Amino acid sequence: MSLADIYDISGSAMRAQTVRMNTIASNLANANSASATEEGAFRALKPVFMSIYEKMDIDGGQSRERVSSAKVAVLDVIESNRPVDQRYEPGNPLANADGYVYYSNVNTMEEMADMMSASRSFQTNIEVMGRINSMKQSLLRLGQM
Amino acid sequence: MPMVMNLDNALGIHAHALQVRSARAEVLASNIANVDTPGYKAKDVDFKSLLQSIQSKSKLGMDQVRLEAMDIDSHTKYRIPMQASMDGNTAELGVEQAAFNSNAMDFQQSLTFLNNKIKGLKMAIQGRA
Predict the structure, then answer these.
(1) Per the structure, how many domains does chain A have?
(2) CA of A7: how far to CAs of A18, A92, A132, B63, B110, in Å?
(3) Looking at CB atoms within 10 Å, which of A17, A39, A132, B17 has the fewest?
């Protein structure tokens, strides 16, 4: 419940956005990875974010969640359940008996848009931290003239 | 008037306003941090009622008037989104950024008022204009 806690909040968001950026990089890197089987094809990774509320003590030794302060955490990284891309490429060394090769289900356009969103959110949290820095600095100078 | 002046009284509303501003900064920073979290509901501090509650505490003559987490929680309300997203998130980056920046400016403003108060007290103590 102070300005110092904001570093934790913005920091948790930056950590979560970094995980998101990591999955986007993996997805884009593997967008054209081929596989001999449908199960072996690369599936796009998607992080799932959740809010973490701080606990506060209330009367009677109990505690409950504070609504006024929320950090971010990555709950899980799931695989996209969109069908993978099946292509007929009999000349491909990975092709199965029927001549099919399985490519990833990554949507490159979607990943690019996601990348912009992730980097923008990351930047915003850095700006929040910078602003808090200057607020704290002027608070330290209180009464010095 | 008592001979000994309470420093809390001398500084007036600005010391309290500063506490409310920094509490609000945390709430708004949480909103900004959670813009991509599904189901997150944006919140904001009801500035007026929180300031009133802290002032009534101070009028009761409590020695240390400080905001507890519970005070902030009970004066925090959900924001009504201009356009809610499909994933149930009501934090809109532009709105939150604007609120955070204006709150930061108001924080600086309260600090300036406080500094001027302190300057005035200092002059009075030293007995010069």
Answers:
(1) 1
(2) 16, 52, 8, 30, 22
(3) A39
